[in-house]
């Protein structure tokens, strides 16, 4: 804790002239958190604590914490998460994000840090690092490489375009009520395999590229959240339809081959090799006994 306070003092200097803090910073990949949860905890929990402490000391007027629908955990087929639903994080990543939220709420409650939390569903769009489902599948498909689908591929995610997410964050930053949580989702969970087949059609690649691989340990089956609160209070609605968003995203990666090649160098290659090419060996050490 001493170290955190010292770090906070440093950050406080940087925050002195800031109107607001928007905490996007996170180790955001579930698979990496499963392979090693330490960095996830350091960045997502300890990092949030440092920022909160600095914001408290600098008396920042607004602290928006960007969280995730993963804090709700696996949703049964007929269930939808609302802001008051219980938190049941499954992965080390989700647990770190839920922990960070608890700190944000505690700082708001105890010290009066004017905080607000957003929980968004899976993002997609340009410039997403290709360790995530959407850019990984597009980049591999463009190269005609195997598309590694975890388990049966029937897991469902509620995809939201990154620009819709950012617009929601801007609205909450300006008009969200302090101490509140706002869900941000598209509202239509889709099975991974269905998304993948649409992508393959858009990219004109065959379904034979799909390769079923060992499932992610503890894999949540379904995320689904309701965003009525942000619509009601701040007038937000997604503007990118899923179909158009997917089309423009696929086209963006098609025309940004150099960017993909650059970010897939070095450390990414090592990660890919360990996590995909030696998947069973790598996961045999982390699964349930
Ligand atoms: P991901 O992009 O990692 O987001 P999250 O785990 O936060 O939802 O994964 C989205 C879905 O795609 C999830 O159900 C896991 C699955 N998936 C695969 O089937 N293969 C992959 O190579 C990756 C990265 C994800």
- Major beta sheet, specifics? 4 strands, parallel
Domain tally: 1
Strand proportion: 5-15%
Give the topology string: H per helix, E per strand.
Answer: HEHHEHEEHEEEHEEHEHHHHH
Report the total helices: 12
Mean pLDDT: 95
Which CATH-level-2 architecture?
A: 3-Layer(aba) Sandwich
Shape: globular
Bound molecules: thymidine-5'-diphosphate
Helix content: 40-55%
CATH class: Alpha Beta
Uncertain stretches: none
Quick overview of this protein structure:
With 289 residues, this protein is of the alpha/beta class. It contains 12 helices and 10 strands.
Structural features, described:
The protein is globular, with a radius of gyration of 19 Å. The model has no long low-confidence stretch (mean pLDDT 95). It is α/β, with parallel strands linked by helices and 289 residues long. The chain has helices at 2-15, 30-35, 38-58, 92-111, 133-142, 162-175, 192-203, 228-234, 242-254, 257-263, 266-277, 279-284; strands at 21-23, 63-68, 115-120, 123-124, 147-150, 156-157, 160-161, 181-184, 190-191, 210-213. The longest helix has 21 residues, at 38-58. 49% of the residues lie in helices and 12% in strands. The site of thymidine-5'-diphosphate has 13 residues, from helix 5 and strand 5.
């Amino acid at each position: 804790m001493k170290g955190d306070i010292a770090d906070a003092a440093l950050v406080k200097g940087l925050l002195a002239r800031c109107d607001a803090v928007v905490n996007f910073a996170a180790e955001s990949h579930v698979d990496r958190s499963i392979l090693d949860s330490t960095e996830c905890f350091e960045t997502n929990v300890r990092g949030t604590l440092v920022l909160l402490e600095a914001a408290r000391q600098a008396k920042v007027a607004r602290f928006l914490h960007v969280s995730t629908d993963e804090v709700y955990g696996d949703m049964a087929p007929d269930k939808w998460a609302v802001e008051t639903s219980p938190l049941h994080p499954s992965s080390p990543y989700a647990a770190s994000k839920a922990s960070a939220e608890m700190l944000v709420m505690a700082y708001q409650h105890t010290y009066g840090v004017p905080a607000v939390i957003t929980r968004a569903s899976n993002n997609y769009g340009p410039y997403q690092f290709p360790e995530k489902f959407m850019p990984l599948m597009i980049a591999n498909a463009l190269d005609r490489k195997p598309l590694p689908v975890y388990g049966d591929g029937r897991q469902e995610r509620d995809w939201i375009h990154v620009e819709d997410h950012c617009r929601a964050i801007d609205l909450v930053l300006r008009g969200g009520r302090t101490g509140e949580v706002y869900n941000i989702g598209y509202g239509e969970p889709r099975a991974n395999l269905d998304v993948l087949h649409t992508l393959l059609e858009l990219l004109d690649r065959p379904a034979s590229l799909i390769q079923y691989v060992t499932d992610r340990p503890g894999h949540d089956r379904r995320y689904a959240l309701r965003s009525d609160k942000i619509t009601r209070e701040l007038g937000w609605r997604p503007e990118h339809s899923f179909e158009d968003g997917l089309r423009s995203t696929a086209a963006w990666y098609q025309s940004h081959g150099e960017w993909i090649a650059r970010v897939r160098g070095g450390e990414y290659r090592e990660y890919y090799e360990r996590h995909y090419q030696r998947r069973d060996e790598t996961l045999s050490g982390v699964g349930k006994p």
